[in-house]
Each structure stands twice: as C-alpha cells, then as structure tokens.
Here is the input.
Amino acid sequence: MSDSAPSLSALASPLDPIGFETQLGPLPSSGKWPPELRGTLVRNGPNPYIEVPGSHWFLGDGMLHAFSIDNGVVHYRNRWIRTQRLVAQQATGQPRATSLSVSAGDDGTANTNVIGHAGHMLALEEAHLPIDIDVDSLDTIGPIDFNSGLNGAFTAHPKTDPHTGELIFFGFGTPEQLSAGMSYGVISAQGKVTRFERFEAPYASMVHDFMVTKDYVMFPVMPLTASQERAKNGLPPYAWEPEFGTRVGIMPRTGSTRDIEWWEGPPSYVFHPMNAWQDPNHPNLLHADVMEFDVPPLFPLPDGSPSPDANPVAHLVRWTFNTADTRRRFTRIRIDPVPGEFPRIDERFSGLPYRHGWYASHVVTSDGRLQSYNGLRHVDHATEERSDFTFNPDDRVSEPVFVPRAADAREGDGWLLAVVWRATENRSDLVVFNALDLAHGPVCSAALPHRVPAGFHGNWFPAIERKNVAQTGG
Ligand SMILES: [Fe+2]
Here is the structure.
C-alpha cells in the first residue's frame, strides 16, 4: 500500500510538515479565558523529519504540539519525538526507509496519540510500545514497558476505566506483523501490568481502535485486511476486502480472551468509536456509537488498484448487540446525517451511558462542495439536538478535546478545545468553545504564527494534578 498511498507532497498543504521546533508565548489571544482552564492541550501527528516521496502519511515521524494555558496566558512548544528512527535520520541526514508492511526493527514513529497514565505522558502509535515523554519539556525518555517485559504492538487508543483508573489496551498484527495475532492487556492506575493475553482474530486486519464498557471489551475486526503474502509479492499489505465481512469480538472483562464471542455484521470500516456502553434499561443490550465508513479511505484493493470510493466519509452509526441473540448478529442505525471523524466525549463517561459527543465535521458549502474538517458538531443523545460551528471556507479543524469545568461538573459542562488551520494565512489558532454551545463560536482563542500540520489525536493534561490524572481517550 505504501506504493499506492497518497504522498505527502500530493496532499493539501495543511498536511505538510513543518521543519522546526520552537517555543513561543505568551501567544496573542482574544476573548475571555476561563480562569478554571489551566493545563496543557497536547496534540500528536505525523511530521516527517525528511520527506520521502510516496511515503504513506501514516508513516511520518511523530511531532508533539503543546498549548499550555494558565489564567488566559498561552504558551506553545513543539517537539519531534526522539524515536530511534528519528535519531537515525538526524545522525545520517538520510531518510529511514519504512513501509506499512515491514518492521524497521526500531521503536516506531510514536505519531498517533498522546495520553497520560500513571504519571507518564505516553506518545502512542499502534505497532510499537508507547514512548515515554517528559510532561514539561516534551523531551523523549524512550520506549516504556512498565517493567513488565511487555513488547510488540500497543494500540494508539487504549481506554481508561473512569472508575478504576486502569488503562486497557490491545495490539493487532502481533507478535508477527500482518498476522491475525492480537493481544489484550490491562495496566493499573499505578502503572503495573496486571493482565496480558494473546489471541487470534478471525482474520488478519488493521484494528485501529476498540471499545470498553463497564463489563465488556469489544474488538472490531473489519475487512481492511492484512496479508503477509501480498506484502511479500509487492502488493498492498493492507487492502479493502469487503467479502470478509465485519466481526466484533465481545469479551467479558471478568473472563479471558478464550471467552471472546465473535459477532457478525456487514462490511464497513471504523477507525474511531465515540463511546460504548451497556444499556441501563435493557440488560441484554450493548451499544457502540462509531464513525463508520462504507469503504475505508487511504487504502487500496488487494491488487493495488484504488478502492471504488475515492473520497469516502464516515457517519455516526449506533451498533447494538443483543446478548440474547444466538445468531450473534448486530444492528446498525445511522444516527447523524452530517459526516465527520475524530469523535470525542467527556472522558469521565468512557464506557458508560452518556449524553454528549463531539466530532470534527465535513461541511457542504453553498455551491455543493464538501469541505473536510471545516466544522465542529455537538451531538446531544438525550434530546437528539445538534449544534454546529462552521469555520471560514477551507479552514480545517483538528479533533476536538473536551475539558470539564471541574472534576465534579455535570457531563458536558466545560470547554471544547481544537486547533484550526487558517487556510488563507497558512497558520493555526487554538480555539476554545463552550462545549454545549458551539454555535456561539469560540469564547477565546490564541494565535500561532505558523501552521500545526493536520495530525491525529491529542489530550488535555490538567495543570495541578497532570502528573497523576492526565485525561486519556480518543
Ligand atoms: Fe486514531
């Protein structure tokens, strides 16, 4: 797939990397900054140290961007993550040959997410261990196994249990790349690996994210298949093969991976669920709200030809599993007509019945064009009301991150933070919304003189207790 993926140079400028590290501040800002908003928004994304023509966007070296906020004063810092791959490039001045199919035998790119757990800031990418980062300086400490001997793939989307503080994770294509091998594990709130198991998926695929409820873990295996055989023959290691259908493994958290039951559904692809939960009114029902593509973007067919939909978009879809259904087939209902990606919630409700969700939306212009990531959308599942904010034409907004007003604030009471690329100025702003009133527009913002390249995920690290209680998710 590395041969047929869009190259960085072919993509729009918000994806282009920046070639420097800096620290700036106080940033010029506007609006009324909430005094309670104290902490740091840290975002991660690919930013190739040396660009390789034709290289897949997913393979760029991870760069962190941190916006620290204290009493309305905003400082910014960005740092490449010093992976072995990056250090080698710095030493030689040469790009490190990488592809989605062959392990470079190093500690990866660390380019996908950044979370807090057990006093650590962890930069994550799904094929390698987390990289430990110094919270204040963003300096790289190095790969971390939590003194457990843990190795192999570690998802970029572990989930924090809001009650126990445990970090629940999985791996795919592990220990052998492009295999059906998967792993499941738990790291306690104190940073001790308390569970680690390996199991086989029904088939080898890319499993980007998963779902965890109070009592269950759900592994979505979807037909963006992986193939060692294809890779050996110069064909795409990952490809769209809808005939495999979707399989979702459901495991009781009190059980083991031997207890996984595989459910069946029609082919589609999900990079990111919004949330999953057990229905409080119907004990047999498990629900998952997911951003579902009919066909995944950025990946070809097995022979390397482009997939049939050149520019697919995802919609918010509710999956429902009835544990009384012996056929193990789940239902799907689209619950929002507006496409988008990067769904987030108030993480205090991760895995629990919830009311509020947000995502970066695609906006249809008056002349009928679909502007990707041009808006933010709030979904109120209780009232079914929606609220939107649309940025200026061609501006592109990042994944939004929710920050509660206080630890005990009601669900959704707080702010939504995002980084928006200002197309006409080719630079970025940090924007802060009242999370329950997006239509009002940003309540405050801070301006960077340069662009934050379009990235993947970020999280909020509260100022006071950030070394212990950094929020995770996404
Ligand atoms: Fe992701």
Residues 112, 156-157, 208, 271-272, 456-457 surround fe (ii) ion (CB under 6 Å). Confidence is low (pLDDT under 50) at residues 1-12, 466-472.
